[in-house]
Structure formats: structure tokens, C-alpha cells
Design brief:
Elements lengths: L7 H11 L5 H15 L3 H4 L2 H12 L6 H13 L5 H10 L9 H14 L4 H10 L9 H14 L4 H12 L7 H14 L4 H12 L7 H14 L4 H12 L7 H14 L4 H10 L9 H14 L4 H10 L9 H14 L4 H12 L7 H14 L4 H10 L9 H14 L4 H10 L9 H14 L4 H10 L9 H14 L4 H12 L7 H13 L5 H10 L9 H13 L5 H10 L9 H14 L4 H10 L9 H14 L4 H7 L12 H14 L4 H10 L9 H13 L5 H10 L9 H13 L5 H12 L7 H13 L5 H10 L9 H13 L5 H10 L9 H14 L4 H12 L7 H13 L5 H10 L9 H14 L4 H14 L5 H13 L5 H12 L7 H13 L6 H11 L8 H17 L11 H10 L6 H12 L6 E5 L5 E6 L4 E6 L13 H12 L3 E6 H4 L4 H16 L1
Parallel strand pairs: 3-4
Antiparallel strand pairs: 1-2, 2-3
């Protein structure tokens, strides 16, 4: 076994043959040699003889001497062989005999148990007790292996580590690089403070790094970083040693090196750049921790490495299932910290993390929430899951975890009241351990989230003053801001902040300065010395101020009543050229501040007056009121600005009376000004005061909220309750506006509508056109059945249509059609009134009017012609659904409008990205139904539809297929995609959808898979009765296609073939004059005998046929072709293909060729030539 030729195989063969004769020493030696010669060879590890050897060793452990015990453990650990019984036996036998172990035995035994991952606390404790007194006999490898083993096994042995530190420090010159690296790694991993040892290792290693392998370099850097040892010279030397050798580093070593330098805070731009260059091409080799740590390191070090981050973002999502919680959290934290946009990565992490939060440590939960908030990623499910998981575990959260979690939910705008309540309960008793940033962030978070937590704020107010010397400027500013924002009275805290801040203003950035002044002003805290200091500091730095900082500073000084002409003058000079960057509140507050302070700044006011009118839709009520107030107070003339906001708002909404509230809401809605805060305030203020509202105020308030698109269900419910008792006093406009408002806002109020219907019917004479139109629109949109009301409107409206606006006309027609009300006199009157005014119609008005007349089946050719003319030149203004509705209407009404369709075909392709599935399908359907040739449009629709098919409903799939087939457009990729999309959803298709789909696929000669046709048939067979003759005919033609293409297969509808055939034959057209002309000519040229109107046994009709010779003549009229072309439509091509497959020789006589012939002679010559050529 010890000879030169020994191999694992020879040793195991010998053991298998004579193992029962082996002594204990023989067994230990055999195991040692197998491991030494075979290493971690897989074949060795799985060899049954090795397992038998382990069993034999275990049975005779008691006979092993120390060397043999150590060797046996070393052998099986080295080979990576699981031998739990043997390790347990050695762990039991060794402690009592450790006095006999030499240093190598002790070290190797510990190493073996750590390497094998075997828990043996009593053995490790015994070694820890036995080793210290004998460390003088340990060689460097023994020392290094022992520390490595205890650290790897996670065994606490401070006395042993201290002793090794003392011994090793003076002998490091004997250590090889691996021993130096492992020793440092072990002390760092075990968390043992050994500054002298680390200093000695740093000194010893620095000059020898050229001998270090990549793993040793990486582990050394990792150890010093982990231990928090300041060893800049060592790190600098590692940079020099590693940078040129990174191609030798494996992924773990690259990751650990980056992690170490980032953790240690060592600037090494060249090293990071080299890692950033080396890593991307090798990310496939990185394990999850290496990926996460690399990203973390670059983010922590503040190194810009966009290509590396992009590569990591691409590599991570497919492997998230392998990531542990810390890796998930660190990856998201890294991308957020580095400011890298990676929405797909964050979405993937959100999905992976949500279901595994039970495995997350508090730090992981906090960091994940922080990262998503910092990155601005909306992840409601993830935040919801964290909000559910965290409260019960807050006792495990450290102060930073608590603060970061609160900050994250506030920053992300997540409503998590239970979580905030739990944090508010957990934090106060632990504030002594909060650092200044934790205190400031916690206060900021609760204030930002609008969470009332008086006890928490009181505790922070008590804890903070004594520690303000540790607060940085941002902490000071944020704390003040939070208390002011939350409306918490804390005079002592504010006084302490004022004192602390005044002497440190040179460290404050502009936002800190502005927020501090804003906070003191908002909290109404008198701090003249602080304001004076800020007034002295700020003017020279205004070029660094953002718009919000400028505005808040001016607002605060004015609000606090502080005279500061120097700072106001500087802001007045700085602001005008930057007003384009100001948001509405900043514009309003700046104007308000200068007016309040009595500062003459005409150029600034003129600039605001120029900028503001274009942006009033963004102003909230206070902005509007303050802006108006400011210009009036300052005596600045700004007629355009005042015209825009006149009568819209007052400076103090709490003082608005009901009419003021109603008129303000009405004015903003009428002007189309977006003012969400104003409407929210009115919605909050109005319900409790509706008893004071008169009918017009009630109606106008409802109308305003509906027009502005403001959701206010509680307000609408209150109005619905208040209106009925006052209906007798409502004017016609009030009635119409109230009904219109409830429908537009999507509020169901059936009792209210019943009351309004009764009131309206008897009073229509007083209604103006808008009232009539809005009332009809409202009732039909709400789905309220009110036949008497509609009959009354139909009688009242025609004589007054001259007063109707275009929208009134369109909406009235739309409403009567939608309600399915028969009102021919009204439609006729609209058809007469509308054409001369179409230039005033919006695209929606034009589309809705056409739709209404087509849907109602009203013939109005002059109106349609006028609409076609008006629409053609304005198609760029049409929305996609308006284009689709327009084409649908003209097709449904049977109106030929070639110029309109041509214009739509030109305009639509470049805008298909705006089309939804229904619009795409309807547009294709309309062009096919109209028989319009529009190849480019269909090609564009085919391309667009393929990317949307997952969102198509069954009818849209069927419509699209039908359209392409009818238009004769070959789109194989689209049909392949539609087949795939349809298959999984056939149960959702109705019978006609199935028929249209089957026919379309057969029509385009789709032959990819017979089973698709069979599936369609199997689904429809249970509901054939739902099909009319058209649908049955479509399946008849499908069955023909199926039998011709797959004759060896049975079509599932074969047993219903006679029913399908009968339906198809009932749809055969009657002979045309053109057909009879050609038949007569055939007689003249002697093509006899022939049968006029022959039907094949398959049910296909032939105009003239000679069945015995299977020859036929088909007369192709205009309906066989796309309009104004000589291109056959899909149906014609389909029938021709079926006839050819059935063996028929068909001569086609197109109408455009026949019509060009002059007299019988030319006709006869034409037919002879055709027949001869086809013979």
C-alpha cells in the first residue's frame, strides 16, 4: 500500500480481498493512502469499497492510536466521503487521548471535522483545551489549520485564538502565503480581535504578495476588511499584485476582492476598473453570492460600472431561485445605491422575494424595502408582503433596520398603517441605541407617511437634544422638517436644533438650509439668530440652490416675518432665468413670499406671470389662491394670469361657503385645470355641509367632480341622498348636469335616476340642447331603462337641432342608438342638420355620429358622404378607436368611401403602436368587409397583432383571421401565432367565432396541423344549433379543405355533413344578368351541352359546367374582387382552389374583361380563345 505503484484502485482491491485480515494500522493507512492518491475523485467517493473501508475503520476505532485517529479523519474529510458513524466514533474516542496527540494530529483532526462539516462540540472543546499549552511545538501549518478549522466550524474558542495570536505573531516569517492568508481569514471569520497579529500579518504579507495565489490574495483582503483592520499599505500592495493577474482569479476571488476593498473603504479605481472589465464575460461562472457581492461592492465603493451592472442585471433573473435572502436583498440594495435602472431585474426580485420573506433576516427585509423605495420601483405586492411579515418580528430589528423600513415605506408612498403602528410601538424604548441618522430618518418617515405617532415623536424629541452634536446637517434639517411637517410641538427640540445649526451652517447644503428655514417657519418657532445666520450664509450660494430650495427659503423668511432684504434681493435676481424648472407650488410660494415680505421685485413677478398661465392645470388650490393673492398684494398687473384664475379660488378654502366651494370646483372643471388638491379639499369639506347647498350648487359640484375626473364616492353618495328632496327646485340644467355627472363618475344611483326621469319628462320644454343631449347620454350610459323619457326627448329635440352643438348632435344620435330607441324623425332631422356643420365636429363627434347611424340602420347617404369628406383631411387628429369606429360605420352602412378608406390605410400603419387588440381587429375586419385593397395596412396589422395576441379575446382572434382570409392576405406567421393563441382558449370561443376561425384558416390554405381544424370542430359540435346558415356553410367549406388535405383523417363533423351541405346550398346566389349573357354566348360558340347553374356533389356551385369533362366556366362579377382592383378576394381564391383540388378545369370570365367587349363577335372570339387556352 505504500509502494510507488500504489493507487486507490490497488489499495481498494487489496482491501476487498484481504480486509478482514487488516490490522487497525492497516485500515488507517489504507484510508490515508486512498485519500492521498485519489483526492476528491468522484469515482473514489462513490466506490462501495470505500464505504466498506469506513465501516471497518469505525468498528475498530478503539484500536487506533492518535496518528491513526487523525489520519482516518483526515482521509475521509480530504476525499469528501460522508462517514458520519466513523466521525462520531473518532469524536468519541479522541478527547480522552488528546494528551497523546502530537501537534499535527491535533491540527489535522480539527481540520478534518471542520472540512467534513461534522458537528463535534465536545471534541473541539477538548482540542481548544489541550492545544494552547503545546502551541510552541506547532509548526506554521498546524497553527494555520487549527485556527482555520475552529473558524470554519463556527466554534468559539477565544482562549485558543488568543494563544495562537501570541505564538503566531513572532513566527510569521516561517509561514508560507497560504498559512498567512488562512490565519488572517480564520481570525476574521471567527470575529476575534487580534490587532497585533493582523498588524504583523500585514507587515509580513506586503513584501511577499508576489508569491500569493489569487485565492490567498482575495482571502487576505477579505480578512482584513471583515476584521475592520486599517491596513492601507497592505491593500495598496494587494492592488499592485492583483491588478495584473485578474485573469487567474476565479469568480469567488474576483467578488471577494471587490467586496473587501469596498468594505474597507479603500479607494482602488484601477483595481475596480480591471474587475469591471474582467467580470462581465465570466458571470455565468459566478454563484449567486458572488453576483450579489460584486454588485454590492461596486455600489458601496461608488464605482461607476454601467456595463458590469447591465451584465449582472441580465445574468441574475434566470437564477433568482438559487439566491438566498441576503443575496436578493444585497443585489437590490446595490442597484438602488448605484442608481442603476434595472426595472426587469427589480420585478424579478420582487417576484422571487415575496414568497420567501419568512426566510429573510430583519436586515434583508429592511434593505429590500429600502432598495425598492430608493430605486422608485412600484412593487405593491412585495411591500404588502413585507408589511405583513415585519410587525411580528420587529423585536429582532436593530435600530437601523427599523429606521430604514419606515423610511422605505414612506418614500414609496405605501399605506402600511399597521406596520407603522408596530414600529411606533417598538422604537421608543430603544431610541438610546438609535444613531442620529436613524432618529432623523424615523421622524422623516412618519411625517412623510402622514402617520400620527405622538408618543414616538415625543420620545424622539426627548432623545435628540442631548445628541445633536453627533447629528450631521442633513439629520438636523430632516428632524426639524419632520416635526414641522407632522405638526408636532417640540419647542425644546427646535431650540436645541437652532443652537446646533447656527454654528455649523457652512456644512449645510442648500436643501438643508431651505428645509431648516421651512421647518422653523411652518412650526412657528421664533429663532431670530438662526434666521440671521442663514440670511448671511445663503445669498453667496444661491447658484447651488434648486428651485424648491429658493422657493422654500423665500417662503420661510416671509412666513416667519424676518426682514432679510439681502437674501430676497439675491433670490429675485437668481429666480427669473430658472422659472422653467419651478413646479407650481414653488412659483406660487415665491410670489406669495415676496408679496408677504413687501419686497419690490417687478421683474420676478413679470417672469412668474409669463410662466404661470400655461401651467395652472398643475396648481393646487393654495397655489392658485396664493398666486392671485400675491400679485394683488404686490400690486402687479397680470391680466392674463388673473383671467385664468379669476373666481376660481380664494386664499383660504376653509372660509369658502357652499356656493364658493361649488363655483370653484365648477370653474376649474370648466377651464380644464387639473387641481387634485383643491378637489380633494372640496370633497372633504362638502359632504357635511350639503344641507346648505342649493340645487345649482349640488348639480354644479357633482358636474365639476365628474368633468374633472375626480373620484369622490363619499361626496357623490352624499349628493345622491341630498338631491331627491329638492328636485322640484332643480332647473332643467341642474337635472341634466346631475344625471350626466353621476354617469361620468361611474356612480350607481338607481333611485336618484328614477327620481330624475320623472322630473325631466314633464319639463323638457325648458331644457336647452346641452341639457337634452346630456340627459339622453346619461341615462343610456347608466343603463337606465326610461322609454317615456326618450320618447319625450325624441319629440322635443328635432325642432331645436339648430341650437345643438356638434357634440350635442353626436351624443344624441349615439344615445338613441345605444339605447336601441326607434326614433326615425329625430335621426332624419340630425341627418339634415349635421352636414353643413361638420367642420365644427371633433373627430370623436364625427366617428360617433357615423357609428350611431350605421348601428341604428338609418340610411343617410348624404350625411355619410359629408362625414367622409370632413374626416379624410383630419385623420391625424383621430384616436385609434375613432378610426376603427369610422371604418366600421361606413362598412356596416354599406357606404362606399374610397378616399376615406385610402386615407385611413395611409394614416393607420404608422400609428398601430397606439391600437389596442379590439381596434386592430376591427380595423382589419372593416377593410376586409369593405373589400378594400390595403396590403401595407394589413402587413402592418399582422406585425402589430402578433405581439398583442396574448391580449386578444376570442372574437378579436376570429375577426382578425376572418379579415385576412377575406382580403386574401397571406400572413403565415400571423396565422401560426393565432393558431397557438386560439388553441389554449377554444372553450371561450362562441360558435360563430369558431366558424369564422375555421373558415379563415381553411381559406388561406393553412396546412400546418390538421388537428387544429379537428379541435375547432370538436368544440363546435356540441353547439351546432347556435350557427346560422353562414356559420354552417363556413364549416362545410372547412370540411372540404380538411378532406382534401388530409384524406386519411376523419373530420369530427362528418356525421353532420348533410346539414352543413344543405346550409351551404341554401346560400348559393341567384343567377345574374352577366351570367346569363355569358351562358348565351357559350351556346353560340358551340360549348355544348353545358349545365347552367351546376352544383357539384360537394355542394360547390358552377355558373356553367360540363360535368362529364369536369370543365366549367365561372362568371366573376365585382363581388369576386377587392374594390376598384383586379385582385380576387379570399373567398374567390378559396373556391377556385377547392375546385382545382377536386379536379375541375375552370375558365374564369372577369366582369372587367367582359364589359370591355364590343358586341357578340368580340364576345365569341374572347370565349373561344379562353376555352382553347384552357383546353
Amino acid at each position: 500500500m505504500t509502494g510507488r505503484g500504489a493507487t486507490p484502485e490497488t489499495i481498494l482491491r487489496l482491501f476487498a480481498a484481504q480486509g478482514d485480515k487488516f490490522s487497525a494500522r492497516n485500515l488507517a493507512t489504507a484510508a490515508h493512502r486512498v485519500a492521498k492518491f485519489g483526492g476528491r475523485n468522484r469515482d473514489v467517493r462513490t466506490d462501495r469499497r470505500v464505504i466498506a473501508l469506513a465501516d471497518a475503520c469505525q468498528r475498530r476505532v478503539r484500536e487506533f492510536d492518535p496518528q491513526e485517529l487523525s489520519n482516518a479523519a483526515w482521509a475521509f474529510a480530504t476525499a469528501g466521503i460522508e462517514a458520519p458513524l466513523l466521525f462520531a466514533a473518532i469524536a468519541g474516542a479522541a478527547p480522552a487521548r488528546l494528551g497523546e496527540f502530537n501537534p499535527q494530529n491535533l491540527a489535522n483532526t480539527a481540520w478534518a471535522f471542520a472540512t467534513a462539516g461534522v458537528e463535534a462540540p465536545l471534541l473541539f472543546a477538548a482540542i481548544a483545551g489541550a492545544a494552547p499549552s503545546r502551541l510552541g511545538d506547532f509548526n506554521p501549518q498546524n497553527l494555520a489549520n487549527t485556527t482555520w478549522a475552529f473558524a470554519k466550524a463556527g466554534i468559539e474558542a477565544p482562549v485558543l485564538f488568543a494563544a495562537i495570536a501570541d505564538v503566531a505573531s513572532s513566527r510569521l516569517d516561517e509561514f508560507i502565503p497560504q498559512q498567512l492568508s488562512n490565519t488572517a481569514w480564520a481570525f476574521a471569520k471567527a470575529g476575534i480581535e487580534a490587532p497585533q497579529l493582523f498588524a504583523a500579518i500585514a507587515g509580513a504579507a506586503s513584501s511577499r504578495l508576489g508569491e500569493f495565489k489569487p485565492q490567498e490574495l482575495a482571502n487576505t483582503a477579505w480578512a482584513f476588511a471583515k476584521a475592520g483592520i486599517d491596513a492601507r499599505e497592505l491593500f495598496a500592495a494587494i492592488v499592485n499584485a492583483a491588478s495584473s493577474r485578474l485573469d487567474e482569479f476565479n469568480p469567488q476571488e474576483l467578488s471577494n476582492t471587490a467586496w473587501a476593498f469596498a468594505t474597507a473603504g479603500i479607494e482602488a479605481p484601477l483595481l475596480f476598473a480591471a474587475i469591471a472589465g474582467a467580470a462581465p464575460s465570466r458571470l455565468g461562472e459566478f454563484n449567486p453570492q458572488a453576483l450579489a457581492n460584486t454588485a454590492w461592492a461596486f455600489a458601496t465603493a461608488g464605482i461607476e460600472a454601467s456595463l458590469l451592472f447591465a451584465a449582472i442585471a441580465g445574468a441574475v433573473p434566470s437564477r433568482l431561485g438559487e439566491f438566498n435572502p441576503q443575496a436578493l436583498a444585497n443585489t437590490s440594495w446595490a442597484f438602488a445605491t448605484a442608481g442603476i435602472e434595472a426595472p426587469q431585474l427589480f420585478v424579478a426580485i420582487a417576484g422571487a422575494a415575496s414568497s420567501r420573506l419568512g426566510e429573510f433576516k430583519p436586515l434583508d427585509l429592511a434593505n429590500t424595502a429600502w432598495a425598492f423605495a430608493k430605486a422608485g420601483i412600484e412593487a405593491p405586492q412585495l411591500f404588502g408582503a413585507i408589511a405583513d411579515a415585519a410587525p411580528s418580528r420587529l423585536g429582532e430589528f436593530n435600530p437601523q433596520d427599523l429606521a430604514n423600513t419606515a423610511w422605505a415605506f414612506a418614500k414609496a408612498g405605501i399605506d402600511a398603517r399597521e406596520l407603522f403602528a408596530a414600529i411606533a410601538g417598538a422604537a421608543p424604548s430603544r431610541l438610546g441605541k438609535f444613531n442620529p441618522q436613524n432618529l432623523a430618518n424615523t421622524a422623516w418617515a412618519f411625517a412623510t407617511a402622514g402617520i400620527e405617532a405622538p408618543q414616538l415623536f415625543a420620545a424622539i424629541a426627548d432623545a435628540a437634544p442631548a445628541r445633536l452634536g453627533e447629528f450631521n446637517p442633513q439629520n438636523l434639517a430632516n428632524t426639524a422638517w419632520a416635526f414641522a411637517k407632522a405638526g408636532i410641538e417640540a419647542p425644546q427640540l427646535f431650540a436645541a436644533i437652532a443652537g446646533a445649526a447656527s454654528s455649523r451652517l457652512g456644512e449645510f447644503n442648500p436643501q438643508n438650509l431651505a428645509n431648516t428655514t421651512w421647518a422653523f417657519a411652518t412650526a412657528s418657532i421664533e429663532a431670530p439668530q438662526l434666521f440671521a445666520a442663514i440670511a448671511g450664509t445663503a445669498p453667496s450660494r444661491l447658484d447651488e440652490f434648486k428651485p424648491q430650495d429658493l422657493s422654500n427659503t423665500a417662503w420661510a423668511f416671509a412666513k416667519a416675518g424676518i426682514e432679510a432684504p439681502q437674501i430676497f434681493g439675491a433670490i429675485a435676481d437668481a429666480a427669473p432665468s430658472r422659472l422653467g424648472e419651478f413646479n407650481p407650488q414653488e412659483l406660487a410660494n415665491t410670489a406669495w413670499a415676496f408679496a408677504t415680505a413687501g419686497i419690490d421685485a417687478r421683474e420676478l413677478f413679470a417672469a412668474i406671470a409669463g410662466v404661470a398661465p400655461l401651467r395652472l392645470g398643475e396648481f393646487n388650490p393654495q397655489n392658485l389662491a396664493n398666486t392671485a393673492w400675491a400679485f394683488a398684494t404686490a400690486g402687479i398687473e397680470a391680466p392674463q394670469l388673473f383671467a385664468a384664475i379669476a373666481d376660481a379660488a380664494l386664499s383660504r378654502l376653509g372660509e369658502f361657503n357652499p356656493q364658493d366651494l361649488s363655483n370653484t370646483a365648477w370653474a376649474f372643471a370648466t377651464a380644464g385645470i387639473e387641481a387634485p388638491l383643491l378637489f380633494a379639499a372640496i370633497a372633504g369639506a362638502a359632504p357635511s355641509r350639503l344641507g346648505e347647498f342649493n340645487p345649482q350648487a349640488l348639480a354644479n359640484t357633482a358636474w365639476a367632480f365628474a368633468t374633472a375626473g375626480i373620484e369622490a364616492s363619499l361626496l357623490f353618495e352624499a349628493i345622491a341622498g341630498a338631491v331627491p328632496s329638492q328636485l322640484g327646485e332643480f332647473s332643467p340644467q341642474n337635472l341634466a348636469n346631475t344625471a350626466w355627472a353621476f354617469v361620468t363618475a361611474g356612480i350607481e344611483a338607481p333611485q336618484l335616476f328614477a327620481e330624475i326621469a320623472g322630473a325631466v319628462s314633464s319639463r323638457l320644454g325648458g331644457f336647452n340642447p346641452q341639457d337634452l343631449s346630456n340627459t339622453a347620454w346619461a341615462f343610456v350610459t347608466a343603463g337606465i331603462d326610461a322609454p317615456q323619457l326618450f320618447a319625450a326627448i325624441a319629440d322635443a329635440a328635432p325642432s331645436r337641432l339648430g341650437e345643438f352643438s356638434p357634440q350635442n348632435l353626436a351624443n344624441t344620435a349615439w344615445a338613441f342608438t345605444k339605447a336601441d330607441i326607434d326614433a326615425p324623425h329625430l335621426f332624419a332631422a340630425i341627418a339634415d342638420a349635421a352636414p353643413s356643420r361638420l367642420g365644427e365636429f371633433s373627430p370623436q363627434n364625427l366617428a360617433n355620429t357615423a357609428w350611431a347611424f350605421a348601428k341604428a340602420g338609418i340610411e343617410a347617404p348624404q350625411l355619410f358622404a359629408a362625414i367622409a369628406g370632413a374626416a379624410s383631411s383630419r385623420l391625424a387628429e383621430f384616436k385609434p378607436h375613432e378610426l376603427a369606429n369610422m371604418t366600421w360605420a361606413f362598412v356596416t352602412a354599406g357606404i362606399d368611401a374610397p378616399q376615406l378608406f385610402a386615407a385611413i390605410a395611409d394614416a393607420a400603419p404608422s400609428r398601430l403602436g397606439e391600437f389596442d387588440p379590439q381596434t386592430l381587429a376591427n380595423t382589419a375586419w372593416a377593410f376586409a368587409r369593405a373589400g378594400i385593397e390595403a396590403r401595407e395596412l394589413f402587413d402592418a396589422i399582422a406585425l402589430a397583432a402578433r405581439s398583442w395576441l396574448g391580449e386578444f379575446d376570442p372574437q378579436e382572434v376570429a375577426k382578425t383571421a376572418w379579415a385576412f382570409a377575406t382580403a386574401g392576405i397571406e400572413a403565415p406567421h400571423l396565422f401560426d401565432a393565432m393558431a397557438t393563441a386560439a388553441r389554449s382558449r377554444l372553450g371561450d370561443f362562441n360558435s360563430q367565432d369558431l366558424a369564422n376561425t375555421a373558415w379563415a384558416f381553411a381559406c388561406v390554405d393553412w396546412r400546418k396541423d390538421s388537428e387544429f381544424f379537428a379541435e375547432l370542430a370538436r368544440v363546435v359540435v356540441t353547439d351546432l344549433d347556435a350557427l346560422d346558415d353562414r356559420g354552417l356553410s363556413q364549416f362545410h367549406l372547412t370540411s372540404l379543405h380538411f378532406h382534401l388535405e388530409w384524406p386519411d383523417r376523419s373530420f369530427p363533423l362528418s356525421s353532420h355533413q348533410q346539414m352543413l351541405l344543405s346550409a351551404y346550398q341554401r346560400r348559393n346566389p341567384t343567377p345574374s344578368h352577366f351570367q346569363r349573357d355569358v351562358a348565351t354566348a357559350l351556346d353560340r360558340v358551340g360549348w355544348t351541352p353545358h349545365i347552367f347553374e351546376h352544383v357539384t356533389e360537394e355542394g360547390l356551385s358552377l355558373d356553367m359546367a360540363r360535368p362529364d369533362a369536369k370543365r366549367a366556366v365561372e362568371v366573376d362579377g365585382p363581388y369576386h374582387y377587392l374594390k376598384r382592383t383586379r385582385v380576387e378576394n379570399g373567398s374567390t381564391r378559396f373556391k377556385s382552389r377547392l375546385l382545382r383540388r377536386l379536379g375541375w378545369n375552370v375558365v374564369h370570365v372577369p366582369f372587367f374583361e367582359w364589359g370591355a367587349l364590343d358586341g357578340k363577335r368580340e364576345q365569341d372570339s374572347y370565349l373561344r380563345a379562353k376555352l382553347f387556352a384552357n383546353a
